[in-house]
């Protein structure tokens, strides 16, 4: 594990701790980052270095990108892209794994659960550092096992592939992302779980977004809905609801307002039957549907954008929602505000998205586009806006 020298890192941590809103004490930072208070004190005094993992935890607690704290200012996205070939190598051997040790099923399950939490929290650097070895280990275990355990390992592989895919897709490695989706589709039937297969259909929609093949993506989701079990218990209800949410968004991208409205209506009806929560790796519930309603309004554009502003005027996403989903809400809202002539509000929303999930926000293409537009609109660029645009590589 890389240890970053103490030169300047502690001073930067202390600075960002003092400027976040509200300001944080060392104790509060330690609690939020799950790092010992004594360690925080020593880092800030420059008495010790800090590992990549600890720095990322501190950055997440502060709501800043880890690159802002590093002494060498090495961009986080550069580290992620450098690690993507290792993910490619790990999945290339999906049917011919190398020999090596494997942990117990219980330990593997815990490792996959951790990776899922990182995905939902948009902790992409953690994923790429851990997933290549974890995928290789899961693959070995899967091929060595039979019976019920083999089915569970297949399900764990699907979850691991999905976490890896989140990184590949967000960082523009679309070929790698498509390959991971195909491996999810290969492994899901082995798990013998219809809901898992439905969750893979949800993820597969990424390939249609990437290809801008929205009508085909909508058809694929509707086929998945036809194949999914009837909603007779909360996990099934949530899984079907998530498919309707996804279908509404891609229908919006296809400018099919009627289909988007129908799928949103179905999603709302199902959300009323369950509590908000993460099931099969996807958050679903009343709050998630509201966020997707904003996304649909922005996708449809024109006369629909006002609906996104109306929702934001009376509601904000709960802190209980996954960070990636909350940041997505503010990214979508910023676009609606920008299109409505509310440039200052749009920039504030982008800054909020950054505080919630910096790695997700930095990689989102809409953030770069909108930050560049804001710089052009504001003839006297503020230093804050300029710094933000440079941070997300807006051109």
Keywords:
two-stranded antiparallel sheet, 20 helices, mainly alpha
Notes on the structure:
The chain is mainly α. The chain has four domains: 3-68, lambda repressor-like DNA-binding domains (434 Repressor (Amino-terminal Domain), Orthogonal Bundle), CATH 1.10.260.40; 75-187, no CATH class; 193-301; 316-395, no CATH class. Helices cover 72% and strands 3% of the residues. The chain has helices at 9-19, 26-33, 37-44, 52-62, 76-92, 105-120, 124-144, 147-170, 174-191, 194-211, 214-227, 234-253, 257-271, 286-300, 305-314, 323-339, 343-356, 358-363, 365-377, 383-391, and strands at residues 3-4, 50-51, 277-279, 282-284. The strands form two sheets. A two-stranded antiparallel sheet has the order 1-2. A hairpin with a 2-residue loop joins β3 and β4 (282-284). It is globular, with a radius of gyration of 21 Å. The mean pLDDT is 91.
H/E topology pattern: EHHHEHHHHHHHHHHEEHHHHHHH
The number of domains: 4
Q: What's the helix count?
A: 20
Based on CA inertia axes, which overall geometry fits? Answer: globular
Q: State the helicity in percent bands.
A: over 70%
Count of DSSP strands: 4
The span between the termini is: 34 Å
Percent of sequence in beta strands = under 5%
- Report the sheet with the most strands, covering strand number, pairing sense and barrel closure: 2 strands, antiparallel
Secondary-structure blueprint:
Layout: E1 3-4, H1 9-19, H2 26-33, H3 37-44, E2 50-51, H4 52-62, H5 76-92, H6 105-120, H7 124-144, H8 147-170, H9 174-191, H10 194-211, H11 214-227, H12 234-253, H13 257-271, E3 277-279, E4 282-284, H14 286-300, H15 305-314, H16 323-339, H17 343-356, H18 358-363, H19 365-377, H20 383-391
Antiparallel strand pairs: 1-2, 3-4
